[in-house]
Design goal:
heterodimer; A: Rossmann fold; 2 domains; seven-stranded mixed β-sheet; three-stranded antiparallel β-sheet; 8 helices; B: 2 domains; 25% helix; globular
């Protein structure tokens, strides 16, 4: 009769009980979402050298994500994307270098910048106006075929990117773009299959982290947080499995079991699956 | 890397067939919403003057939470806690958060969500928008009647229907599957025919394919009328949108003002800058919602969606709202009012 009991008490007593329950629950949630320490790394960019790409408002979103998530887990770095291309590429020294902000130097990598797709590549905009291997884009990009996330260093398990289009999956080319990155053992990736709108409203970062802290699955946390921030957003979660059943089961991964879920690499991956809103 | 190479070939071979796989679940604004967006970009507002609103004094979030739990028949086995200013109630497989002002809530049933994949259907069998609206209205009437209260001159309107789609590919056979696993209806509110735009005055309900409610989220304050504002015309609204999108993207606005479309055909897209187009404009009372954590007045305003695309195809989406009052009030929680710098 707890619900009825609470509602029948005077406000002061009820609030005191709620606060006590709150402390207890915070402990429970903290432990459920953080059975193991998960190291986060964050890289965001809202301006681009020589305006090679237009500005976007993303720092508020990134700040809020960090403020919420670091209540339960360490955020090892928060960097921009200047000179960052090689920090995403397999076999490069920066990939596993925490001081460099390497993608494989943490367990959970969060990024916000421009994104795009072309043929068999998904790309993320770096700050620099140019760099080797820009693949014909207007400035420096990091492209997914050069990534193999999860096989080196800290072996990143989750990748979250607030970027347009990079998780496009309606054309049947998703695995062409992401096969290399996921084959390193990356367990779950979230992003946008079409446009994700930036604004001064930073609810997406806050709500994503809040849901994660509550141990909602990483995929659902992303899908709902980004959709609720703006109903016209197009969020996606994607992951791998040994087979179809395994893939859909693994899409439910939470912070609580992210570290313990078994790693699938290369030939052990038999299936990939995704879920979109919109 | 043999298996990867084989799977790449297989997926490439099947790419064309995927594109032809059939109808894609069509998430979008409903026809009445699209009609309003066409009106907004052509005329802005029907009225020359609108009232500035205030979200009424806060409700007791504990009472709201307890009432919702009772209405949802979730029993008594739940825990309460505070997450910042929000109240969080959590049972074994559900959670409910209530905003500090008691006017907004966010509910998720993890047990229902866990069944969604097993209930997935072909894309062509998505729940029609009309059925979604009917189910949504029934749920509001039966479970949220105490929270979704309509005042004099107010109406609950269906705004958009969205779908959760899923897919996967067997890397050995190359077979790709697609399905729809969730159906979402978004309701809004009109006050004397003028819609509330932004995340305030919204009710969003998600149904699995068996009709179960997986989640809902609402922001539904009671409004109090304040002073009046004279609103500007569509041309001035578009100029304001041009200004703020140009400022956000740091791309110079076009030398000429965005043209107001004539009454023929689709008014969108509207060129704002050389590489940026306005996708939609929704004019009404702008309420960002209490879950955004920003207390503010509810002034006449227009939400916008714009997209920029460079010559290589890289896109960026911009969203926000511009004030529509000829003399609007600067609001610390509404950056465009500060950027446009008028009072």
């Amino acid at each position: 009769m707890k619900g009825t009991f609470l509602s029948s008490l005077s406000g002061a007593v009820r609030n005191a009980l709620l606060l006590m329950a709150g402390i207890a629950m915070l402990t429970i949630f903290s432990s459920s979402a953080s059975a193991a320490t998960i190291h986060f790394g964050v890289r965001c960019e809202d301006t681009f050298q020589n305006n090679w790409a237009p500005n976007i408002d993303v720092y508020g979103e990134c700040d809020n994500f960090i403020s919420e998530i670091e209540t339960i887990q360490p955020v090892d770095f928060y960097f921009n994307l200047q000179g960052a291309q090689l920090d995403f590429y397999y076999g490069q020294p920066g990939e596993t270098c925490k001081a460099c902000g390497g993608v494989d130097s943490v367990d959970f990598f969060y990024m916000s910048t421009h994104g795009g797709v072309s043929g068999d590549q998904a790309v993320y905009a770096m700050w620099d106006a140019s760099c080797p291997g820009d693949a014909g884009w207007g400035g420096c990009i990091a492209q997914t075929p050069s990534m193999r996330i999860g096989s080196s260093g800290k072996q990143a398990k989750a990748l979250a990117t607030f970027s347009c289009d990079t998780f496009e999956n309606s054309d049947g080319l998703f695995w062409n773009r992401w096969g290399s990155a996921f084959s390193g053992g990356l367990k779950v990736g979230v992003g946008g299959h079409d446009l994700l709108y930036t604004s001064n409203d930073t609810q997406a970062g806050t709500n994503f982290a809040t849901y994660l802290v509550e141990n909602v699955s990483i995929g659902s946390s992303w899908l709902n947080a980004v959709y609720y921030a703006n109903n016209s957003n197009n969020p996606t979660v994607a992951n791998t499995g040994a087979n179809s059943t395994d893939c859909w089961n693994r899409q439910g991964v939470t912070l609580g079991n992210l570290m313990s879920e078994n790693v699938l690499r290369d030939g052990a991956i038999g299936y990939y699956c995704w879920t979109n809103w919109n | 890397m043999k298996s990867k190479n084989l799977s790449l070939v297989a997926s490439a071979m099947l790419a064309a067939s995927v594109v032809m796989a059939g109808s894609i679940a069509s998430a979008e604004d409903l026809p009445q919403t699209k009609a309003h967006q066409q009106f907004s970009v052509r005329q802005g507002f029907s009225e020359s003057t609108l009232t500035v609103l205030q979200r009424a004094a806060a409700l007791d979030q504990n009472k709201v939470g307890a009432a919702l739990v009772e209405q949802l028949q979730k029993g008594n086995a739940y825990q309460a806690s505070k997450d910042g200013s929000k109240l969080r109630l959590a049972g074994k497989e559900w959670s409910l958060e209530v905003a500090s002002d008691g006017a907004a809530a966010d509910y998720h049933d993890q047990a229902v969500e866990a069944r969604a994949h097993s209930l997935a259907k072909p894309l062509s069998q998505e729940m029609p928008a009309a059925e979604l609206e009917q189910k949504g209205r029934a749920f509001i009437s039966s479970k949220l009647a105490s929270q979704i209260v309509l005042g004099t001159g107010e109406q609950l309107i269906a705004v958009r229907a969205d779908y959760r789609t899923e897919g996967g590919q067997d890397l050995a056979t190359g077979e790709i599957t697609h399905a729809v696993s969730g159906n979402r209806i978004v309701f809004g509110r009109t006050l004397n025919g003028v819609p509330v735009v932004g995340n305030g005055s919204k009710v969003i309900i998600t149904f699995t394919n068996d009709g179960s409610v997986e989640s809902f989220r609402y922001d539904w304050p009671k409004y109090q009328a304040g002073t009046s504002q004279q609103v500007v015309d569509a041309g001035q609204i578009l100029t304001r949108v041009q200004t703020v999108v140009g400022a956000h993207s740091d791309v110079a606005a076009a030398t000429s003002n965005a043209p107001v479309a004539n009454s023929e055909g689709d008014a969108y897209p509207v060129a704002l800058t050389p590489n940026t187009q306005l996708q939609t404009l929704d004019c009404g009372y702008y309420d960002a919602g209490s879950l955004a954590g920003k207390s503010q007045t509810v002034q006449p305003g227009c939400t916008y969606l714009a997209v920029s695309q460079d010559s290589n195809g890289m896109r960026a989406g911009y969203a926000g709202a511009v004030p529509a009052g000829a003399q609007f009030t600067a609001d610390a929680g509404w950056s465009e009012t500060k950027l446009l710098g008028r009072k």
